[in-house]
Predict the 3D structure of the following.
Amino acid sequence: MTHRRRLLVTGFIALLLAASLVVAIVWLVGGHNAGQPLSSGQPTLSQSQVRRQRISGPVHAAGMRILDSSGRAVRIDSLVLMNYGTRSDKPWLALSDQDFDNIAGWGFNSVRLNFSWAHLEPRAPSVGQGGSLTHHWDRGYLRDIDAAVSGFTRRHVAVILDLYQFGWFPQMPLWLYPSRLSFFQAQCDFVSGRREPGAPIDPQRGAADVWRMMAGRYRANPMVIGADLLTEPDCPSRSGQGVKLDPLYSRLTRAIRSANPKIMIVFEDYIAAIVQKSGSGVTLSPDRNAMYAFHLYRPDWALAKGTLDSYIRHGRDLRVPPWLGEFDAFGANRRDKPPPGDWQALTMTLFEYLRAHDVSGWAYWAYRGTGSVFEGDGTTVDTELIRSLQTGF
């Protein structure tokens, strides 16, 4: 090889290396330092649109608004994740880099990350002298939740942790209930603070310990912005007791605050059917930095508006920001029945209502499972649904 040709080859290689370095820097600055790029055809937003949506944690309530750490008013627009809130008789489903990239690329600025007490603590705690407890947390489960929290927050997607239940026993430890109560009685006993004879611990004390551990675990991560105390608590729907949630929420909040002074408290009311029968389950906010959450599952706008009006009036009485903590876009992608033909128009009407009434965002049910943002094959993204949800940002 001549000296001139050697110089040309050397120069060409140097240019390739420089170009590779520039591409790598742009990739990292753009937040793509983990995972795989989204496949073409997905309903991704531009980087500037995604950045406008981002939340800088931690967040705090200021009157009826939510402010992030920069002092900017923000809305919390989420997807609900069931991967770690599965039934206790089924394994949890760890998220992948593709899942993290999907949600960040679609523009959702947060997720509600459900977790299951039954998975977290499959074995009862040991009771020592004086009633002291030694908990046996499942380390593998916690490692997978750690990975999910890291996967999202490194992509600037905030996380709301949620103590999840649906039907109670699938997500709550069976060792709390030696006599195997009905799921309704078990829920009502939990809300009321009653301990079943023979139970190794008081259930509310156990839940407080769960929250103390989880809130403390992510104290150093400002993008873990919220702690949703309990999904859809239930008691008065059949008993008519009208049990208030205030004492339970106060106890759980004190436990969280002992470990994490900045995370926002998210407290849910009873579902609409219970509120209509027995009234709201909450009479006061458990904390100054808190958000009042409610769920919406209605087949038409007339019923939806009546439900929303009731919750929002009560939220104003509580003097904290309201948040639509679950909705399904009027059954847009349910597997058990077809949605109404005008579900998109209804969803746009819902978003207009939420903006007009200063609701601080929403969470769509769900990323996977019933109402999934994927088609029936579980791999094809429902682009029409995602684009409809993006109109709510």
Observations:
- The chain has one domain: 46-390.
- Confidence is low (pLDDT under 50) at residues 3-40.
- The radius of gyration is 23 Å.
- The domain at 46-390 is CATH 3.20.20.80 (TIM Barrel).
